[in-house]
Design a protein that fits this description.
This protein is mostly helical and 138 residues long. Helices cover 70% and strands 0% of the residues. The mean pLDDT is 87.
Length: 138
């Protein structure tokens, strides 16, 4: 059961509030809360059920923020966090990279900035299920 009074849950609710606000404020308003929640997650036991739930919830919340903005620096920031939030985060980040939300040049630049091991993770995730990808990436 999720402890709704835990600091991480409070921060995630704050991020949800930002998501319901005017779109232009999403990047600047949400970063401090995302950073704090992510920092707290790093302190939790990696394999506990609560940590896994919190990581997944933060990943889905961050994914919603990425869908609601076209700010390329926030997009890059969000993807970097998603890739560190476990399998759910990796799947969501890969989906964002290849759904056509950002110009292909931005996606190529983003991919080339990753370490080779992360590039392989991204491409493996992509080729596991390329449905829904923008055809220009195929």
């Amino acid at each position: 059961m999720i402890d709704l009074h835990s600091p991480i849950q409070i921060l995630i609710r704050q991020i949800h509030g930002i998501l319901r606000s005017p779109l232009q404020s999403i990047p600047s308003d949400s970063k401090p809360f995302i950073d704090q929640a992510f920092g707290l997650l790093k302190l939790e036991p990696v394999d506990s059920e609560e940590t896994i739930r919190n990581r997944s919830e933060l990943a889905y919340t961050l994914s919603s923020l990425l869908s609601a903005t076209l700010d390329s620096s926030f997009f890059s920031y969000g993807l970097n966090i998603l890739f560190q939030l476990g399998e759910v985060g990796e799947m969501l980040a890969t989906a964002h990279l290849f759904q056509g939300q950002m110009p292909i040049e931005t996606v190529v630049a983003q991919l080339s900035s990753y370490a080779p091991s992360l590039q392989l993770v991204v491409l493996n995730r992509f080729f596991l299920d390329p449905r829904g990808a923008d055809p220009q990436y195929l």
